[in-house]
What we know:
CATH superfamily: Winged helix-like DNA-binding domain superfamily/Winged helix DNA-binding domain
CATH class: Mainly Alpha
GO molecular function: methyltransferase activity
GO biological process, one term: methylation
Oligomer: single chain
Keywords: DNA damage, Methyltransferase, Transferase
Distance between the termini: 36 Å
CATH architecture: Orthogonal Bundle
Strand order of the largest sheet: 1-2
Strand content: 5-15%
Structural class: mainly alpha
Mean pLDDT: 88
Largest sheet: 2 strands, parallel
InterPro entries: ATL_DNA_repair, MethylDNA_cys_MeTrfase_DNA-bd, MethylDNA_cys_MeTrfase_DNAb, WH-like_DNA-bd_sf
Helix content: 25-40%
Organism: Rufibacter quisquiliarum
Order of helices and strands: HEHHEHEEHH
Amino acid sequence: MPVPAAPDKKANFFQDVYEVVKLIPPGRVSSYGAIAAYLGSKGSARMVGWALIASHAQHGVPAHRVVNRNGLLTGRQHYDAPNAMQEYLEQEGVEVKDGQVVEFKRLFWDPAKELL
DNA sequence: TGTTTGACTTATG
DNA sequence: ACATAAGCCAAAC
């Protein structure tokens, strides 16, 4: 599996992803597809994932608030500990059960609609 | 330079 | 409901 080295270059797309993710309110979660759609690249949900992998090098990017459309914490394996992502979410008041956000539908934060 | 691989999503059988 | 395919695009090899 390829791993992004360091997005020190332009990576405007990456930077845009970071800004949107930073706007996600605590206790809320969003999805890759929603962010990708908000950025214009509707079918580029994967790129959002790439950006979040690279977000390790950034600061203030709550990547743990971004999950897939099922509310599943698919990215938890990219954290130091397998339950780190879940812990962060629970600290913010998000219920997580078996790596999946409970009431995801209710906590979902869509930038295209909330951010107008 | 070309192939492979995803922190995805939607469509189809 | 589960399995597979396809679209997407940048990075690693």
